[in-house]
Design brief:
385 residues; Immunoglobulin-like; Rossmann fold; 4-stranded mixed β-sheet; 8 helices
Length: 385
């Protein structure tokens, strides 16, 4: 065997040995609700298996009163518990979404998990509803662009039923989180309805129709980025999602409600990945959208490709950009500084040819509470008189 080949083989073997050396034994102990169907399998699904909810390698063994699985892992892991698909994923004690479980594995350890409920076995959430004003809910809106269905919730401004006026429209991502604590992520919401009602009644903003587009769970990351991220192996359906908004959903809203359908009265917004796709959408379809609320955006996703796309696709039409970010988005000081700087950089980039506003929330983290706090500035800037 030649020397170079021998060195290469030894190097590869060394890498495998290092991987084994730094893997730790993680014993997962899971208890489930008493009404869990006896015949159902229980799986752990997370970053370590590319979020496959029915991976036989991560099937837990049934011990009657609990389930167990021993895994060899290391570093930061994120996961949830399911019964084989995303319709049977775990839910909270009141029917709310469960935040991803996050652990840093640096030693052998046992992790005890108690599942409170399953998505498919829950009735309406027991969290009291918090909707203010008049809303209409439309279920199973079909997207031919994505070949899927979703719920859309529409807020109507005060006096809509009695007036003959037409109104601007604000399309928002993660629609289950914006109006109602009962459907919001981890039992939280943005209170966009309360905020809009207050500002409209005080004549600070124009009366506006707000359309909340529900995300589809795991598909959220696929639909909210036009590019696939090799780290998460998700993304790449952003173009189809934007076309769904423009070619299917907007015509339905314009037909059903009294809207001002022109671009100067059409806005889009969202946070995190929802901020990324909102920024992208207003650049891709400036014929449809006039302004975008881009809150705590995931500009880092897919290797920051959004920066090159923005640089190459600034339209001739003027766009109104609202960008914001908190100073404590991640809890890691180095990553927080990078988060703030990339939003600043983007705001500077688009300032050349667009209307812009940049808000930095001192001490704000990456949460519904932070976005709720900044929502008045969003509405005043985009929909203000």
């Amino acid at each position: 065997m030649k020397l170079k080949t021998l060195v290469l083989v030894l190097t590869i073997l060394g890498l495998f040995a290092a991987a084994d050396l730094y893997a730790f034994e993680v014993k997962l102990n899971v208890t489930v609700p008493h009404d869990t169907p006896l015949q159902d399998n229980i799986y752990v699904v997370g970053t370590f298996n590319k979020w496959n909810p029915a991976d036989e390698n991560y099937l837990l063994e049934n011990y009657g009163d609990h389930y167990e699985l021993t895994m060899n892992l290391y570093g930061r892991i994120t996961f949830k518990i399911s019964r084989g698909d995303w319709e049977t994923v775990e839910k909270g004690s009141q029917g709310e979404e469960v935040r991803d479980r996050v652990y840093v594995i640096a030693r052998d350890r046992k992790i005890d998990i108690e599942v409170s409920n399953w998505r498919d076995m829950m009735g309406p959430p027991s969290i009291p509803g918090t909707i203010t004003g008049t809303v209409r809910i439309f279920k199973n809106i079909y997207s031919p662009e994505l070949d899927n269905r979703r719920t859309v919730i529409v807020y109507l401004p005060p006096g809509y039923e009695k007036s003959k006026e037409s109104y601007p429209v604000f399309y928002m991502q993660d629609g289950q989180n914006i109006f109602n604590r009962a459907t919001g992520f981890a039992g939280q919401e943005w209170e966009v309805d309360e905020c809009a009602e207050n500002l409209i009644m005080r004549e600070i903003i124009r009366p506006v129709i707000i359309v909340g587009i529900y995300n589809l769970g795991l598909e959220r990351m696929n639909e909210y980025s036009p590019w696939k991220d090799p780290k998460y192996e998700m993304g790449g359906k952003g173009d189809e999602y934007v076309e769904f908004l423009c070619n299917t959903l907007k015509p339905l809203i314009d037909k059903k409600f009294r809207t001002n359908p022109d671009r100067k009265n059409t806005f889009i917004g969202g946070s995190s990945m929802g901020g990324l796709i909102s920024h992208y959408a207003v650049l891709k379809r400036p014929d449809v959208f006039f302004g975008a609320a881009v809150m705590s955006p995931s500009f880092h996703y897919a290797g920051r490709k959004i920066f090159k796309y923005t640089r190459d696709n600034m339209p001739d039409e003027k766009i109104r950009f609202y960008h914001d970010v908190g100073t404590c988005e991640t809890g890691d000081p180095k990553r927080d500084r990078a988060f703030v700087e990339q939003v600043k950089d983007m705001s500077e980039m688009v300032k050349i040819s667009s209307e812009t506003r940049l808000i930095i929330g001192d001490g704000h983290n990456h949460s519904e509470a932070a976005w709720r706090h900044r929502m008045p500035e969003v509405l005043k800037y985009l929909i203000g008189k």
